[in-house]
Structures are given as structure tokens and as C-alpha cells.
Amino acid sequence: NMKEDVCYVLAKWIDKGFHFGDLSVQIHYGRGNEEKLTSGAAWHADAENSLLHLAVTLSGSRVLHSKRIQAHANTTLRRPKRQEPTEVLERQEPGDVYLSSSTLMRHAPQFFDTDYSTRVIAIHARILYTSADIEHFRRVRTRDSWERLTNVLANTLA
Q: What would the pLDDT profile of 51-71 be if each residue is shown by its tens digit?
């Protein structure tokens, strides 16, 4: 049943215009987060609303750290146990934009010491869904359907 597949559910969310409907403005100033980054406390993967995650830096400077398995486009990403993710650092300056699937990768923002005039301001746009929508998504998620979805997203965003 197609309606019982996470690929179909995500496609329907996009069809309904749910993508990038969940907006947040993140502001950082003050002390940087080097200690959290080094200790691992800053590292995380996002919830399902970041299956498609668009971010725009408006002011200030930050670095997006992510851990990824590097693969060629249009490949099936089956991760052997021995393959370790590579840490990728991407500096974000005013006007920089990235589109990712932050649900599928461990990542951490790096902030530097700033004052109010050099603060970081970024807009993050994610998928907007209801509690019933995400409960249905999680209920129909199988290992196979999740693997298909993650491969489609990884190949599309590569």
C-alpha cells in the first residue's frame, strides 16, 4: 500500500506545501561553544522535520560541522561497518545558504565569541507537520522504506 510508505508520506507533505513551513530564527552572541564542540555535546541529528532543512545566514559567522559518508551521486548508500564518516566543515557567512537532510547526519554548529554587533543570525526552514502526521510517518516507517527514502534524499542532495 503506497500510503503506508515513508517515501509517499514525504512526497505528500511536499505536495501539500509543508516543506520549509516550519521557520525559526536562531540568534547567537556571547561566548563561543568550542568546549561543547570538543566534548561532543554540540553534536546531534535533527528530528524528521529536518529531512529537508534549508538555512540562510543573515549576519555573523559560524561553521557547520557534519559527519558524512562520502559517496558518488546516484549510488546506493549501504554503509559497511568499517567505513567511518568524514567530518566536513562549512563556514557560513552572511548570504550563505545550505540545503541538507539534518535528520540523516550528525552535525554541530560552531559559534565563536561575539558581541551584539557581530552576533550570528540564521533562519532555518524545515518541514511543518502535525502531531498526527508525524505519528503516521513513524508508524509506517520500516527498515526498507527508510533505506529507500534516505537513498533518494542522499542522492538528490549530493
A: 999 999 999 999 999 998 766
